Amino acid sequence: MKTITIISFLVALSFKGYAQELLINVDNRTTKSLNGQWDIIIDPLENGYYNFHLKEHAEGTKKAFFSDGRPSDKSELLEYSFDTGEKLHVPGDWNSQKEKLLFYEGTVWYRRKFNYKLPENKRLFIYFGAVNYEAIVYLNGKKIGEHTGGFTPFNFEISDVVKQGENSLVVKVDNKRKKDAIPTTMLDWWNYGGINRRVLLIEEEQTFIRDYHVQLAKDSFNEIRGWIQLDGEARQQSVTLNIAEADVHKTVNTNSDGYAKFAMKANLDLWSPENPKLYPVKISSATDTIRDEIGFRSIQVTGTQILLNGSPIYLRGICLHEEAPTREGRAYSHEDAQILLNWAKELNCNYVRLAHYPHNEYMTRLADRMGLLVWSEIPVYWALQWDKPEVFNNASRQLKDMISRDKNKASIIIWSLANETPESDARNTFLHSLAKQARLQDPTRLISAALLHGKAEGVIRVDDPIGEFLDVLGCNEYTGWYGDMDPELFNVKWETKYRKPMIMSELGAGALQGFHADPDTRWSEEFQSNVYKHQFPMLDSISFLSGISPWILKDFRSARRPLPVFQDYYNRKGLISEYGEKKDAFFLLQEYYNKKQREKDIRLWQLKEFISPGYQGLKIIGSPKIVEGPFGAAVYFDGENDAYFLDENPVQGLDEFTIEMLFKPETGGDREQRVLHIGSVGGDRLLLETRLTGEGNWYMDSYIKSRDAHCVLKSSDYLHPLDQWYHMALVVEKGTIKNYVNGKLELEGKVEDLKPIYGGRTSVGVRQNKVFWFKGTIASFKITPKALKGDELNRI
Ligand code: GCU
Questions:
Q1: CB 415 within 8 A of CB 361
Q2: Cα–Cα distance, 299 to 293 (Å, whole number)
Q3: Which of 318, 312, 303 is nearest to 602 (CA)?
Q4: Mutate to test the pocket of ligand 1, among 479, 551, 557 (most ligand atoms within 8 A of CB)
Q5: Does ligand 1 have an atom closer than 6 angstroms to the CB of 421?
Q6: Tell me, what's the pLDDT at 437?
Q7: pLDDT (0 to 100) of residue 715
Q8: Distance of alpha carbon 325 from its chain centroid, rounded?
Q9: What whole-number distance in Å separates Cα of residue 692 and Cα of residue 656?
Q10: What is the pLDDT of residue 614?
Q11: Sheet with 238-243, edge to edge strand ranges
């Protein structure tokens, strides 16, 4: 099959009668909800759409269910009626609302009457959060449009069709599975049919702000970059972006397509799980204003690490399906999202994988507010028909809409293109094109996919060819569940040919909540726990692992799981039962994450001064670059502009402490450079400096100056070649100050009456008076509130 070009993707978009360009941020638009009880007709034969010779009913045909007809008199034959039929709640799937529809896959017609008075100079749109799987929408008997795909929003303009007064909205919904659909016929979740998410009428100005992208530029911590798209006649306007709290006020002029780009610097409090800071944002044009709440964070990869705001992060995650937490069926409300994400927080997660399709917008908005990082995915799941262009167009449309709806959500860090898809040339081309499309549409986030792994000679390899064009490898592994639960199986090496971070996107085991037995008895909670206990050390041993998301938060319905008693059409790998009861393994994972967090906190203490710009009060000077160091992320200072300031003195009040740095001073810097300054200028402070000889060597000097005592250690006599890594330790205790390079004591001195260094701040790589900048790389910086000894003083 010829390489799928973005062109074919663009062609796909312009398909006539298909859903129009998405209106984003519907929460902040003028809307009228059409949620509630809708009248329905269950139509397995699609009798309301085709005549008995399978010819589609034409518009105006009274027999057609979309005509919402009524007998005009007592003798007229009409064999359907919405007025006297059954009802279903919208939003909501039909399978869990009616026992008889639990396994139903086919067509159901929905009808909703609504009254509307559209003011003269306004436009009206009908918006669906999601309909599974195929939707054909009619208003007052006229076909408005259609949409395919069960998990992405779509809207149609109805300004010219809506009647002043009562309107009849009819939607034909069909969830029949098809081989060339996405997902295809085989899937391990329930094929919930219906209008599964909210339905809104959206009233807009003649020319309004339909779409915008406001995020940090790729690899930046302080440059906001984005665009605004107007929709309507008056496309050329001046539009203003206001982020008052960040003192951002930018006006741009849209072009003849109603489009304008912008970029500006801003001093931002960056969003992170610890600090889910959202800024109120206002975008206003001459004819329209829209508000939003947006967080700003940077997400990058370097080597095998994922960096959030420049700091390595370990993703403590969990997978979840979009199933309601306390009742049967699809989740669709803010309350559902709150309970599900509260459970994730209770596990001490900082990350969730929303599987295997985009979840409703309440989930991603709440993740923004709660500080949960998100992996969002399109249902390119298992074996699709890769060589069919219409299948690719469907996938690329779902990808476009997923990104479009949530591109301003700080919580979303990863777009996932696929799950457990079988390798083939056609599949590789298919996914490669999707990766290119995703990067084109949103260059700021990471691209991934959940891959399968290979195993040879006791080594598990993640070498899937599509790994090449992913930023992060996802891998699903079920050691101990699919196959034997043999502890030896966990004693395995993990390798990949890619120098990239990996997330174990699935792992786990099944258990029937409340069934207890010995750990070898399958389906018991003890068996599930035992698998987790063996997983943790294996996961800890994988050097390129940046996080995990065990399968899965809650037991969920699946037609693949008919085993009586233990499954009953539920996938039992949840850590919580379908009734909300926690299994033992829930607490095991919670404990593991608490340990991981503790480790992270220690690491953060190590790096916080300068590697985590998201740290409160840290100011970046210039643009220190995140580079690869001996132990992962490191920071390069260019010796002219780069430094970090931290409004904090980490040795405040300590009368003994050890400062360790792993650094590589570089040729070409100033003769006198300041690596570290702690304390207040002119007041109590501790300084560490490197001096260059000009012959390619450096030597150290440092001193402590406090109100009541002064100790200059003069310069060490030991010369060291530049451009090499050094471990430097400065130890202060009981009136002495010692400096070690690679564990060798180089400088020592007595500090009379040393008083703790009070107040001040910390700066790395700078000298306050803007000279003597540090040129080189710092890989780690650690302060230990005690005087270290022996081997601890040399960690090169
Ligand atoms: C797969 C798949 C899931 C499935 C799970 C399981 O890896 O991605 O959708 O539910 O394994 O087998 O339970």
A1: no
A2: 19
A3: 312
A4: 551
A5: no
A6: 98
A7: 60
A8: 21
A9: 29
A10: 47
A11: 248-253, 238-243, 279-284, 289-294
- Please enumerate, as own/partner, the contacts of 47-52 that have beta carbons within 8 Å and a separation of 24 or more: 47/80, 48/80, 48/107, 48/109, 48/172, 49/107, 49/136, 49/172
Place of tokens 């499309």: 437
Q: 361-370 and 334-346 helices cross at what angle (nearest 10)?
A: 40
Reply yes or no: is the peptide bond before residue 624 cis, omega within 30 of 0.
no
Rounded Cα distance, 620 and 311, in Å: 13
Closest CA to 363 of 387, 343, 384, 392: 343
**C-beta separation of 70 from 143 below 8 A:** no
- Tell me the sheet residues that pair with 127: 155, 200
Find the range with the poorest average confidence among 9-23, 205-219, 306-320. 9-23
Task: Tell how far the Cα of 131 is from the centroid of ligand 1, in angstroms.
Answer: 23
Ligand 1 near 506 CB (within 6 A): yes
pLDDT of residue 714: 55
Average pLDDT, the chain: 89
Return left, alpha or beta for 303; rule: phi > 0 is left, psi -120 to 50 is alpha, else beta: left
* Alpha helices per DSSP H over 442-562: 525-540
> Between the CA of residue 533 and those of 444, 522, 587, 793, what are the distances in Å?
36, 15, 11, 35
Report the 10 Å Cβ neighbour count for 790. 7
Structure token digits, residue 564: 């009586």
Q: Are 712 and 689 in contact (CB under 8 A)?
A: no
DSSP 33: E
Q: What is the CA radius of gyration of the chain?
A: 30
Which pLDDT value is given to residue 4?
Answer: 43
For the stretch 685-743, pLDDT in tens is 677 777 777 777 777 776 666 555 555 555 666 778 888 888 888 888 777 778 888 88
**Closest Cα partner for 724 from 796, 641, 627, 624?**
796
Strands 502-506 and 472-476 come out as parallel
Nearest CA to ligand 1 atom 12: 188
Residues pairing with 710 in the sheet: 705
CA distances from 97 to 59, 510, 698 (A): 31, 27, 75
**Does 350 have pLDDT greater than 50?**
yes
> 2-11, 383-392, 495-504, 641-650: which range is least confident on average?
2-11
- Name, in order, each residue with C-beta under 8 angstroms of 547's C-beta and a sequence gap of 6 or more: 306, 313, 314, 315, 316, 317, 351, 503, 504
Which H or E run includes 658?
Answer: strand 657-665
Confidence label for 772 from pLDDT (cuts 50, 70 and 90): low
Residue 456 dihedral angles phi and psi, to the nearest 5°: -150, 135
Task: In whole angstroms, give the CA distance from residue 739 to residue 718.
Answer: 12
pLDDT at 613 over 70: no
Return the closest-CA partner of residue 239 out of 231, 247, 398. 231
Tokens representing residue 741 in the block: 């390079």
Rounded CA-CA distance 781/727 in Å is 10
- List, for residues 706-717, the tens digit of each pLDDT value: 555 555 555 666
What is the spatial distance between Cα 367 and Cα 409, in angstroms, rounded to a whole number?
A: 9
Residue 476, ligand 1, Cβ within 6 A:
yes
Asked if 215 and 296 touch (Cβ cutoff 8 Å), the reply is yes
Q: Is 90 exceeded by the pLDDT of residue 270? A: yes
Q: Taking a C-beta distance cutoff of 8 angstroms, is the pair 227, 453 a contact?
A: no
Residue type, 105: E
Average pLDDT over residues 281-292: 97
Q: Rounded mean pLDDT of 746-757? A: 64
Angstrom distance (rounded) from CA 65 to CA 137? 12
Pocket residue to mutate for ligand 1, from 184, 186, 187, 188, most atoms within 8 A of Cβ: 188
- pLDDT score recorded for residue 442: 97
- Ligand 1 in contact with 416 (CB < 6 A)? no
CA neighbor of 507 nearest in space, from 471, 526, 534, 525:
534
The predicted-structure confidence for 669-681, as pLDDT tens digits, reads as follows 777 777 777 776 5
